[in-house]
Amino acid sequence: MAVAIAAGLDGDGSPQPAPAATTTTASLQEQSESQPTVPARTQAEREAKARAEDAAAARKDLAAQEEKESALAASAEQASAAEVPRDDVSDDEESPVNNPDREPAGAAPTPSMEPEAPGADENRSQSQSSEITVSQQNALRSANSYLAFTAFSHSGLIRQLEFEGFSRADATWAADNVSADWNEQARLSARSYLDFSAFSRTGLIRQLEFEGFSTQQATQAAGAVSVDWNEQAAKSAESYLQFSAFSRSGLIDQLMFEGFTREQAEYGVNRAGL
Q1: Total domain count, the chain
Q2: DSSP 183-195
Q3: Same domain membership, residue 253 and residue 234
Q4: For residue 60, is pLDDT > 60?
């Protein structure tokens, strides 16, 4: 025991450091195999980190793609809901070239040829009659009353109804809806004028036009009445001489001014004794 302690002291008795342990080649090889080197571990970590980043980026791209597809699907659904429903037909059936019997888009629908239900006209008439105002009914009654006693043109009847106090709208509605043949009214008016005064053919047409008849209606009426225009010239000549003095040529000129022909005017002057 004393020998061992003495071996650990130097000559003056101070302790000596223990000799360094000798590392053998075998032990170094074992340590190298059991512990990886620092560069190898760092490379592996970098590769793992890169793979993780690639995987994260791929997941992010996939999520973005799915979100984009969802948005497109939602937009397509909204557009489909906004469109007018159409029958399931093929593109060939939709094309007017491939299917000439099909009406082009935007064309007016073909009127239905189905017969109306029984009583449709009656219902329509009742609907229209329910829209007639009291003032319109009164104007129509008044118009029928006037036409029962004398002849009127369409415009002349409107003026008469307005004179009676009806509005222009009600008077016009009544004249439009009264049962009247305006050509016949022109003929009746022409006959009435000829019963009380003498007219030439052109003078009678002008008078009827003044009363509101059209030129066609007035001309037809003047041609439809049974009248001797020579006799009308004679009556007119006698009427002038009752109220004024005329020479023969002066009376002929006056009758021609009234629309009689020269032959008719001379016949009338001769009948008057000039």
Answers
A1: 3
A2: HHHHHHHHHHHHH
A3: yes
A4: yes
